[in-house]
Each structure stands twice: as C-alpha cells, then as structure tokens.
Amino acid sequence: MDYQRLVECFRSLALQAGDRIMEIYGAEDFDVRAKSDASPVTEADEAADALIAEGLAQAFPDILVVTEEQAATHGKAADTFIIVDPLDGTKEFVQRRGDFTVNIALVENGVPTRGVVYAPAKERLFYTGADGVTVEEQGPFDITRAGTLTPLSVGRPDNGALMVVASKSHRDAATDAYIGKYAVRDMTSAGSSLKFCLVATGEADLYPRLGRTMEWDTAAGQAVLLGAGGKVVRFDDHLPLTYGKAGYENPFFIAYAPGVDLKAS
C-alpha cells in the first residue's frame, strides 16, 4: 500500500467535498428528506458522496469502497477496504450548528489505519500521515499542498479528573449514568466524529457512546485517535473496536486517552 499517495488522495477529496458541502450550507434553503431508517439526508450528503466515490474509484480501482449513501456497498466485504461517511452530523448540518464532518478511512484487517476527518464549517482538518501519526493541519487549506502540520498526542488526565465529551444529538440517561462513575473536571459536547478528534488533541479525555453507530460514522475518527495514541474499545468487554463486521454496525464503545482508568459497564 502506497500510504503517502493514499493520504494525499483522502485529504484532497475531503477538502473538495467540504467545499461542496459549504456551498450548499451557505444557500438560503436546501433539500432534506428522510431515509428508510428515518435519519435525514440532504443534497450535501449526496453531492459529497458522489465526489468522493468517483475520486476513490479513479485512484484505487482495486480497493472496495463502502459508503453510507450507497446501500449496495453495505453487503460487500474485504480484508482491506475504504469506508466513507461523506457528511457525518447531518442533524447538525440541517440545524446549521457547524459540527459536521467529512470522513474517509482505510481499514486493514479490522483496524482503521489511516483516516481523515474534516470539519469545513469549523475549519479544522485532522488526518493520519503516511507514517500513521496523526496531525492537525492549520488553515487556510490548499487542495494540492499541505500546510503547517501539528502532530497530535492524547492528553494526561488532570489529577484523575477528566474532561468528557459527549454527543449533542444522542445524549441519554445511560450515558450520563456511566459518566457519573468518573471524577469529571468538566464536560463538553460535540457533534459527529469531532468527538474522537477532541480526545486526539487532548481537549478531552473520554468519549463514551451508548447508542447505535455504523462503522462509517467512526472509522476515520478512530484512525485519527489511534494515530494520536488513544484507544477505542467495546463498552461491554473493553476489547478493541474492530471493523468489517456484518452489516457494518458497531456495538456501544468507549474512546479514551490511555491514562483513563476505565470503569466497568
């Protein structure tokens, strides 16, 4: 695998998709409808998906691409595949809250090893380099050339008191009960895969998710966190969260900095 070429492609496609998403986001109105599972989909999801899928097919014709917006890909499987969520955080997009991201990841033997998370409305870009180390690139962003890069590393909990990040749209009593098992210094909320990135930068220590997610929601964020020294485990048994599962559905999980002493579920 030519990781340098792969990372450059992922980065470029994420930025191009982000530009297209922001064109639609800036319009006075845009089309929103419900999918079969009642979740919202917009013309921005579909435009970004088409752009990314075409770019990946041209660059890596021999690698399976699984993408949220193409149901025909959800029944396919391979040891090595690329997985895409062209617009994670559609609810945040529709409500114009800004916490939405473009996500592209490479999965190898169950592990997301390279990934990019781009939050165009917040102008934040995170990705794993060819060496597997996660960086945050400083804007403004040039599609053809990377700018200033800051290597990321997870933080160390402050005297055991944690900064916790949780979902804006999917917070529930079970999540609050689990968070209550920890000494919490402060809490913040974020939408989409940005929660993984906040742990990767050290802006948060713990992100528990006790709700339904799909692999395309989490793969790029997990790659970013792993490349910064973080971990993502299943909620029930604390074994690593793996990819390529039947139906691409995740169990509940916990993303965290290794200095966190995980509590039993």
Secondary-structure blueprint:
Layout: H1 3-25, E1 32-34, E2 40-42, H2 43-59, E3 64-67, E4 80-88, H3 90-94, E5 101-108, E6 111-119, E7 124-128, E8 134-137, E9 149-151, E10 162-167, H4 173-179, E11 184-190, H5 194-201, E12 206-209, H6 215-226, E13 231-234, E14 253-256
Parallel strand pairs: 3-4, 10-11
Antiparallel strand pairs: 1-2, 4-5, 5-6, 6-7, 7-8, 8-9, 12-14, 13-14
Helix pairs in contact: 1-2, 5-6
Q: Can you describe this structure?
A:
By secondary structure, the protein is α+β, with helices and mostly antiparallel strands. The radius of gyration is 17 Å and the shape is globular. Helix 1 packs antiparallel against helix 2 (43-59) and helix 5 runs parallel beside helix 6 (215-226). The chain has helices at 3-25, 43-59, 90-94, 173-179, 194-201, 215-226; strands at 32-34, 40-42, 64-67, 80-88, 101-108, 111-119, 124-128, 134-137, 149-151, 162-167, 184-190, 206-209, 231-234, 253-256. It folds into two domains: 3-151, Fructose-1,6-Bisphosphatase, subunit A, domain 1 (Fructose-1,6-Bisphosphatase, Chain A, domain 1); 162-256, D-Maltodextrin-Binding Protein, domain 2 (3-Layer(aba) Sandwich). Helices cover 27% and strands 28% of the residues. It has a seven-stranded mixed beta sheet. Strands 12-14-13 form a three-stranded antiparallel beta sheet, with helices on both faces. Strands 1-2 form a two-stranded antiparallel sheet. Its EC number is 3.1.3.7. This is 3'(2'),5'-bisphosphate nucleotidase CysQ. It is a peripheral membrane protein.
